[in-house]
Amino acid sequence: MEPIALIPPTSDYADQIAAYRAAFLRRGDTLAGCSPLPDVEDPLEWLAFVRRLSDPSTVPEGFVQSSQFLCVRETDGLLMGMLQVRHTLGNPFLERFGGHIGYSIHPEHRRKGYAKGMLALALPYCRSLGLKRVLITCAQENEGSRRTILADGGRYESTVTEPRKGQRMERYWIELDPED
User: What is residue 177's predicted lDDT score, i.e. its pLDDT?
Assistant: First the structure.
């Protein structure tokens, strides 16, 4: 795996964000850790929305304060993935099915260790928010995500059924050690 960094999204990445979205939609894949990106065609509109999520005074009803990150390859700035850290589990959906962290890797760059690296980079940030542990969920059939969570210290808690889609979701907790 080439070196990666987590950076806040900016308009400089608008074209790559649009291409990222299109790659997922073409495949019928889920855009996890991207807020409403599946439903928002204009990357600048999406950027405005994630900025609202970052400020507690502008978080829309039903959402929680969160920090959005792009995972970029350091050598060339290529968008490899996206990750969202939710500062709290402040609504019933997140408490049960969504968790503190959502993430996705571009379909062309999967199975190369980027998800594991991206999640590892996010954990110290979570600790800096005062979180002692984080909940991460994945679809029961998503072996890659399960392995990523386990590799970064996830401990299985339970499997629940998300009622809107009837999808089985596995729940994992990662304890955040002080040295993270």
Answer: 79
Rounded to 5 degrees, φ, ψ at 56 are: -60, -25
Distance, CA of 51 to CA of 3 (rounded, Å): 26
d(CA 87, CA 71): 19
CA distance 146 to 149: 5
SS3 category, 171: strand
Domain ranges for the chain, please list them. Answer: 4-175
Report the side by side order of strands in the sheet with 155-162. Answer: 133-139, 167-175, 155-162
Tens digits of residue pLDDT in 86-139: 999 988 889 999 999 999 999 999 999 999 999 999 999 999 999 999 999 999
Instruction: List, in sequence order, the alpha helices (H) in 28-91.
Output: 43-54
| Whole-angstrom distance, CA of residue 14 vs CA of residue 134 | 29
C-alpha separations of 114 from 11, 57, 109, 122, 133 in Å: 23, 33, 8, 12, 22
- What does the DSSP 8-state code read for residue 10? -
Q: Please state, in angstroms and rounded to a whole number, the distance separating the CA atoms of residues 26 and 147.
A: 25
CATH topology of domain 4-175: Aminopeptidase (3.40.630)
